[in-house]
Structures are given as C-alpha cells and as structure tokens.
Amino acid sequence: MAAVPETIVFVAAPPRQGLWSKAFHKFCRDRAGLVGLWVVLLYAIVALGVWLGFWAGDWADVTGPKWGPVSAQHWFGTNLIGQDIFARALYSTRTAFELGLVVAVLSTFVGAVFGAFAGFFSGGWIDELVLWFMGVIDSIPFYLLVAAIAFSLGDSPYAMYIAMIATFWVGTSRLVRGEVIKLKEFEFVEAAHAIGLSELAIIFRHILPNTFHILLVQATITFVAAIKSEVILSFLGIGIQDGMSWGLMIAESTIEVLAGFFNNFIAASLLMFGLVMAFNMFSDALQDALDPRSVR
Amino acid sequence: MTRPVLEVRDLAVEFDTENGRVRAVNNVSFSVNAGEVVGLVGESGCGKTVTGLSLLGLVPSPPGEVVNGEILLDGHDLLKLNEVGMRKIRGGEVSMIFQEPMTALNPVLTVGYQMTEVLRLHKSLSKRQARNAAIEMLGIVGIPVPSKRIDEYPHEMSGGMRQRVMIAMALSCGPKLLIADEPTTALDVTTQAQVLDEIVRLQHQFEMAVILITHDLGVVAQTCQRALVMYCGELVEAAPIDSLFASPRHPYTQGLIRSIPRIREHKIDRLPVIEGMVPDIAALPEGCHFADRCNRVQADCHERSPVLTPSAEAGAVACWHPLEPQHD
User: Fold this and answer.
1) CATH number for A272
2) Which residue of A lies nearest to B144 if distances are taken between CA atoms?
3) Model pTM?
4) To the nearest 10°, the Cα dihedral for A18, A24, A28, A31?
5) What is the ipTM of this complex?
6) B150 touches chain A (CB under 8 A)
7) Position A171 in a domain
8) How confident is the model at residue A213, as a pLDDT?
C-alpha cells in the first residue's frame, strides 16, 4: 500500500472554459449575430413597453383622418378608418413576441420530452408510437390543421397557438431523438445506471441537459417560424382573432393597396422583416457558437 | 476475512445476435471474500465485462439475458430482485468504476452534482450534508482543494483526476463490493500506478471486496490477491496470485504469462505468443474451447469439456491435462 506521492502535479485549473462560456466568446466575435441580438432586444423592449402600457395603447382608437399621410403625429400615417398605423405596428410587435415565445417554449418542451423518450427507448413501442404520431402530424398540411383546430375550437383565439405547438414540436423531437440515441450509448449513462438511478432520472437529469444546445437553437427557429406563420394565417383569417398583428395589418391593406395606399402594408412588412431577419441572424450565430466542431 | 461477500454460482449470460443466440458467459462460479481484491483476467471479448455487468443487473437487455445462475451478495440472490430492489443495490452496496473516465462522467453536470446525486439517492442526506460528504470523499481519493474542485465540470479535470472522481463516487456510499472494469486502461502508465495504489489503499481503508476486471496481467500482479482467468466465457483457472504466476496450471494461463515482456530477465529475440485465434463464440468447438490452440492437446480434449476442478493447492483449473504444479 503506497501512499500517494505528494509530488503529483495538478496544473492549476485553466480559466473556466465550459461549453457555454466558450460559446459566449465565440458568439461575441460574430458581428452579424451581435447585430441580430441587439435588434431582437430592441423589439423585445418595444413589445414589453406595449405590454406594460407605455405606448401604442391607442392602437384601436380613431385618431386621424382616413388614409392620413405621414406626419409628426402619425409617423406611418393612418389607415382606412383613421387609426394610427405606427401604434398598430408597435402593438403587433407584442402580439408577435407573445406568440413566438409561447409557441417556441411549449413546442420545444413537448419536442424535447417526446424526443427524449422515443430516443431512450428507441426500437421499443414508445418509440414506435411517437414516430407514428410524428408521421401523422407531418402528413397533415399545416394550414388545413390550423383551420381544422380553429373550427373544432369554435374560433378560439388559442386555435392558432395549439395548431402551431402541435406541429412545430415534431422537428425538435426528431432532432432530440437522434441525439438521445447517440447519447444513451455513452458511458456516463451506464454509470448513471450503475449508481442506481431510475430511467426517468437518467432521461431528465443526465441525458436531456446534454441536448440543451439543440433545444436552444430549435427554440429560436420555432420562434421565427411562428411569427411568419402567424402573418399568413391571419391574412387567411384563421390566425389572430382579437387584437392586432402584422398579418391582420397586411390583410387590412389588401383593400388599401388597390386604392394606391401602401402605408399599412409597408409598415407591417418592414417590421416583420426586421424581426425575422434579426432573429435569423441571431439564431445562425447561436448555432455556430454552440457547435463544438466549428472553429473560429 | 474468509466470509464471502459475493458468491456467483453457475452464471450464464446469453445474447441474441444476428447469428443466433450466443452464450457470452457460461458456467461461471466464483466467490469474493470481504477485504479481498480479485482479478478477472482475459482477452477482449472473453466475457469479463459482461460478468461484471451482470453482477449489477446491467447486462443490456435486449439483446442480453442472464439465463442461469445465482449471484449471492451476503447470501441474498441479486437475480431474484426486481428493478427497484436492484437500484438500491447499485451504487449503494455494489458500485462500479468504468474504463473511460473521459466519458463516464456527464459532461454538462458539475462533479459536485454527480457526486451528491449518489449520496442523496442512497443515504438520504440533505443537500448540504451530501456536499460535505462529497468534498470529504474527494479529499480521500487525493484530489487537492476538493472544496473548490467540486464545482468544476469534468472537462476541467485531467484523466487521472476524473478517474479519482469516479472512484470517490463509487466509494461514497460505502459499498461492500467494488467492480472496477478496466479502471486504468485509458490512463497513461504513471497515472495508472497512482490510481491502482489509490484503489488498494481505499480497499484497505473501507474493507471492501474488489473485483478488478482487466486484460493486463501486470495490473493483476500488482494489486490482486487472487485471479480468475477467463477464456471464451468460461473460467479456466482460479488461483492465488503467487501460485498463478509461479506455476500456472492451465496452458492458456501459461501462455498469457509467457507473453508478458520482461526487461530484467534473460533476453529473448521473440516474445512467445499463443498460436491461433480465439474461436468465434457463436461457433465454439466441441470439448475444450482452447484445444485448437493448446500445446498440450490430446485426443480427449476435443471430445469432453473440462470443468473447473479444485486442485491440490488453493487454486482450481479447467483442463484435462494441466501443467504440473512446480515447487520452488
């Protein structure tokens, strides 16, 4: 029995460079990503301000003449019945964020849980069931599904939310499933078994945290997808039911464009374009930063 | 010292493969006494790891299945326990160290989280108590400044340190039996020696039994009191270390020992090897599985399978024509 020699040299710990701090540094070097992040934050502040009632509270009031021009009082002019387009566009930012956040968080959560179970029990009946379920959802055209859900819920304002969550989790789930199939062969999973953890604890405490980078990126992608889909759905009349959104503004503008008045259309499109573009840049940079293989 | 902590009787494990059902472990019986380090030696694929995993009920199933035998831990048959009962044993009374310290720790969780998890699971300690116990354990396995190191992630540690963390984790609940599956194979030689010393020291300190699974006879000679030699899923020889190395009885054991390079003894031009290949366990030959490679083979070897029979000394050998014991 030899004592451990005192001379074992443990080099002082290198500066803490975990996956996240490394990703953070990589992200900070990504110009486009940073710009994207700042723009997204700006939108978030606008949305938060609307939510807190700081501005755009008068989005539904008639405050000017029909089709008023751009002026100091009405920055983007007024619409068909004299409502301020700028206020409506700002208010729509809140709608977009609400929708994006709720759909991104919930569909990522659902996707993570289903994907983790399917992956962990891959080849078993749970996996078969989840895969079958995903196949079914994939095979229904998205807009048809929304219309069907909206119809069955009796034009509930949540129909669109439910339809989006029911559809968007599938992509996340497939990715998580694949990752979990890979991860569950790692020795740390066997080691977790060997210390007597239950399968649930292994899935949720040991495997899912290892897919967090995928979940984060998927959530940002879903966020953008939700906002874009909202515009189309609202335009078709099966989206936002009460309140205001960019989609509804564009729907409104169809009459106006014919009359040669483009303010409503341009305001909604530009604001949506700005957010989607910024979010995509952010999401792209995030993906690069979290990818351990990309060296930059 | 003589009370067996673990007694394995007639263990058999089968796997479903593309070529049909294959018996990876057959008729394995052995016992391990308290405070004893037993080496389980054999080449890759001989069933060492499967034997180790079956002791914890961790044989991947499907495709694997323990088809026969008894595994008695302090007299209680582990194979009769259900999954929930087995979970209490794992990490508590029997724990395991794995080969790859690089991948056996979860990369996204801190060392502290992973260590306190075991303690809280089996000893129902509070968070604070578990943390203190974990820090103490890390100190015992020789990690400097454990109160700081505990909050680190596995990738911030070296291989040797990670293996120490694994050992600390395995020992933290005071197991009766530790199964170490190639604990040093992935480490370099200096670290290997330190970790082995550590295991032996802790084995004394905690008075537990250790099964050391390895393909490295040098490691066995350094650490174990007794060794079990496996070939093609069966035990071919069991003997105390001294007699095993001084006078192996089974020709396979002899071949293994001869093939260790020695630097201090007479120089030879070529290292002796065991001729031939390990047979495919899906198509094992009749009789003794080693017969085709054996230099002492006789006609009856191909007809009847030898069984492990205790010899005059402390050991046991499964061979029809074993080597004569040599006395110095």
Assistant:
1) 1.10.3720.10
2) A10
3) 0.78
4) 120
5) 0.77
6) no
7) yes
8) 86
